[in-house]
Amino acid sequence: MGLLDAIGEIIKAAGKAAGGTVPLKEAARSAPSGMGCYKIYWHGLKYVGKAEDGIRKRFVQYYNGTTAHYPSAIKIYEHRDEITVSWLVLNSPQECRKTEKEWIERYDPEWNERSGWN
């Protein structure tokens, strides 16, 4: 794959995430490395989260099961090949925390834990 092909794939993935969803496996290869918030879908919206260390890094962790030590991450790993994701790139950890909190309150995703979101 040439440089232009790689850039095209990144733009294509970013465009999908901005207006739709991308399979988790694809997002683990092509999502941006910057921080942000994301939504996880499996028969509807199931989970929202923040990725202060990088969106792609978080998707790789979910896909490989390296974060599968809490209930929602276990479910994500179990359904990883059926899950799609979308994301929003943000500029600061504060924006990530604020957006995640707003999304949890607005969408009340089934796989987000119900306590500790003050």
Identify the notable features of this structure and list them briefly.
118 residues; alpha+beta; 5 helices; four-stranded antiparallel β-sheet; GIY-YIG endonuclease; single chain; globular
Oligomer: single chain
The CATH C-level class name: Alpha Beta
- Output mean pLDDT: 86
Cα separation of the termini: 46 Å
Percent range of helical residues:
40-55%
Number of domains: 1
Structural class: alpha+beta
Q: Write the CATH fold name.
A: GIY-YIG endonuclease
CATH architecture: 3-Layer(aba) Sandwich
Number of helices: 5
Proportion of beta-strand residues: 15-25%
What is the assigned CATH homologous superfamily?
GIY-YIG endonuclease
**SSE succession:** HEHEEHHEH
The geometry reads as: globular
Rounded Rg:
14 Å
Q: Could you name the ranges where pLDDT drops below 50 across 5 or more consecutive residues? A: none
- Overall strand count: 4
